[in-house]
Amino acid sequence: MKKNNLEKKTEKKQEVKRIPTTRYTPNPEQGLTSQQVQEHRLHGWTNRAVDPPSKTTRDIIHENVFTYFNLIFLILAILLCLVGSFRNLTFLPVIIANTLIGIIQEIRAKKVLDNLTMLNAPHAMVIRDGKQSLVDAEKLVLDDIVVFKAGNQICADAEVCLGTVQVNESLLTGEADEITKQPGDILMSGSFIVSGECRARLDKVGEDSYISKLTLQAKEMQDNEQSEMIRALDKLVLVAGIAIIPIGILLFVQGFFFQGEGFRSSVTSMVAAVIGMIPEGLYLLASVALAVSAMRLATKKVLLHDMKCIETLARVNVLCVDKTGTITDNTMEVREFKPTDKYDNETMAPLSQLIGDFAAAMDRDNITMEAIKRSFPHASGRKPISKTGFSSATKYSSVTFEDEAYVLGAPEFVLKEAYETYAEDIESYAAKGLRVLVFGTYDGEIDGNELAKPICPLGYLMLANPIRKAAKETFSYFAEQGVEVKVISGDNPRTVSEVAKEAGVEGAERYIDASTLKDEEAMRDAVLKYNVFGRVTPNQKRQFVQMLKDAGKTVAMTGDGVNDVLALKDADCSIAMASGSDAAAQASQLVLLESDFSCMPEVVLEGRRVVNNIQRSASLFLVKNIFSFLLSMFSVVFMITYPLEPSQISLISMFTIGVPAFFLALEPNKNIIKGHFLTNVFLKALPAALTDVLAVGALVIFGQSFGVDSKDISTAATMLLAIVGFMILFKISAPMNKLRVGILMGCIAGLLFCSVYLHRLFAITGMSVKCIMLFVVFSIATESAFRFLTILVDKTRFYYLRLRGKATE
Predict the structure, then answer these.
(1) How many CB atoms lie within 10 A of CB 182?
(2) Contact 623, 688 (CB under 8 A)
(3) Which candidate, 733, 659, 686, 661, places its Cα nearest to that of 94?
(4) Taking Cα atoms as reference points, which of 573, 602, 597, 741 lies closest to residue 668?
């Protein structure tokens, strides 16, 4: 099989072994030479990943072919061949087809996702031979000079050579505080640049760096975190896998030693029972449905790091969003600026020039500063002595000149106790949905930490993010679906509230300043009561998510910045905008590659389609499994031979389970998911399974009493199972539409065709008059029995839920 370039690249990386190499200390302006880069590559000192980005084609084939149940099927096939019962090998084509479908769909999904992953792969700005170029992070080598800016993830352990940055090491230490890094300081991989710009020499790359260890830990965590549907399917497969061996042995021993059946007959009946208990297509169906969904979402530029998050998102009832990048565009503009009463236009330079001096000294390391630089391009040319970039912890940035120091920041943080004096003006601007920053002078030493005293305010800058065009429609959809939206932002709470109102967020008038929440109890009450939170710290975002989960909510978190990473990691489902930081994109299960939040309803609907359809199809599979298990127990207890042959089980499985389940699993389905997966599936399947057991068990007992031939009973039992199978198929397909009617009629026609024209292959024989009479009686009885058992199960569930206070579920 032909391998794609990504697999070849992965295998080649794994073959490279590291050998000792010469270390270099290049000039930060020049970087390594091409020859030095090539030397490190040949010696294996690249920043290669510690594990491949995805499973190889060989891995996919191996996982689909060498399974526990395929081994069981192989053993059963060998036993049937040994006894010469080749007709009963009809289950093999279905197993082979299922395996091939699984392999093909996974490989197709892998190719699509690999291409998207490569588009979204982390990049780095590297300096080589005195030139800057953007390369994949994996192509960096030891001693490379890399340029790090705000929002970048540090992709390998490095030493700062030039410049000053503030770094968030929360993924390493759990602390959200920013740390200032200057020349000579170490940048740890896995941390993120919050503000500033620097050039750093890579000191540890690839498997030696912290990011490699973090990647392995994150991957291990993701592998262990299964969705409810996958956990339920795992339980079903585990129970079936354990049960089939002792039951198979019991049936064989009973038939061969106690009933005197021949070796061939004992093996055949045992194989039929075991095949009936194996949910051979259920897990495959779920995998294929998830893979198809991943491909569908890929066409909408949605990258899934974890396919199982589709189900989680479909179950979400609380959605936490940030204002910037989600409700609004990830851009900023200065709407207006106003002087305060402290500004004297007679003795001071024009306010626009003072702000221009400040802006000229700062770097374009965030969208706020970019907007200020655009709006205040004129400066006097003064040279700054020092400056500090914006920090989410201190909420200000500063520039110090020879004569005075300027500060720009959030009013509450820079005005401190003097805030009340200016609160009326500030709140009036915030009420318009504007973000208000205060510009002023500071009489004291600025060290990047919290200001020791208030600034002297000279003016207000009013900024705003444009509301996304589809925001109202998107939030209206979530309100209709019963999903509560909570806006969590670091901005002024009143400003955020006005923006949320404009975007149509339900309950946006309920807002609170998170900086006033001093203890855990107050925070827990607030997170359930309010829908808009302002002045939220990174650690509080994480606490909000945890508290909502503790309250029994299924929480989705969206984010695009460094400060969102911790909350994204803890959310049930994490969603990142690709236009944001590398950190958020890598920490999330789902990445919107075009940073378009309006596509979220489609993602939710895709999740509902998958879960509801698999839940519906799983009921069909479980009918056969429960029936085969109970009938096997019935056969052992009453010392009768299992009445069905493997080929007959294959016939029923094909037309009442396999074919309809495949089509139903890919059908549109927008229904809200209710209840637990396993409970829903089991209760839907139980009435039909019990009907099957009662009908077939009674048929066998009466048939033996009236001396009906075992082959006639076997054929009659097959037809009874078909009738009940189509009844449950009709029930779970309701309400019927043209497609579902077509599927039902097609399956009935297929079963009749095989029974008439391929009757020898599927062991369908003509029935005697006695058998026909019994068949007619029990056929009529099955409808009443099925209806009665359905009502009984529904009533039992209702009263059980009412006792637990959940009768509305």
Answers:
(1) 12
(2) yes
(3) 659
(4) 602
Residue 709's CB is within 10 A of a number of other CB atoms, namely 14
CA distance 483 to 555: 10
Could you tell me the two tokens for 146?
A: 């890399």
CB 761 within 8 A of CB 718: no
If you search the block for the tokens 């009940």, which residue do you land on? 724
Rounded CA-CA distance 582/157 in Å is 16
Residue 395: strand, helix, or coil: coil
Q: Could you identify the residue written with the tokens 């199972």?
A: 721
Q: Which residues pair with 334 in a beta bridge?
A: 463
Three-state secondary structure along 245-313? HHHHHHHHHHHHHHCCCCHHHHHHHHHHHHHHHCCCCHHHHHHHHHHHHHHHHHHCCEEECCCCHHHHH
Task: Judge whether 794 counts as a catalytic residue.
Answer: no
**Per residue in 229-277, pLDDT tens?**
777 777 777 788 888 889 889 989 988 888 888 888 889 889 888 888 8
Question: Would you call 187 helix, strand, or coil by DSSP?
Answer: strand
Question: What is the three-class DSSP state of 397?
Answer: strand
CA 779 to chain centre: 46
What is the pTM for the complete model shown? Answer: 0.67
- Alpha carbons within 13 angstroms on the beta-carbon side of residue 215 total 18
Residue 683 Cα distances to 281, 615, 690, 732, 794, angstroms: 20, 11, 11, 12, 8
One of 143, 322, 329, 570 is an active-site residue; which one? 322
* C-alpha span between 686 and 731 (Å, rounded): 13
- β-bridge pairing 178-181 and 145-149: unpaired
Give the tens place of pLDDT for each residue, 447-474.
Answer: 888 899 999 999 999 998 888 888 889 9
Cα angle 296, 298, 301; round to 5 = 125
Give the mean pLDDT of 702-711. 88
Q: What's at 498, amino acid-wise?
A: E
Which residue in this structure is represented by tokens 């050039």? 199
- Annotate 200-255 with DSSP letters as a single string: EEEEE-GGGSHHHHHHHHHHHHHHH---HHHHHHHHHHHHHHHHHHHHHHHHHHII
Q: Render the burial of 496-532: b for 16+ CB within 10 Å, e for the rest.
A: bbbbbbebbbbbbeebbebbebeeeeebbebbeebbb
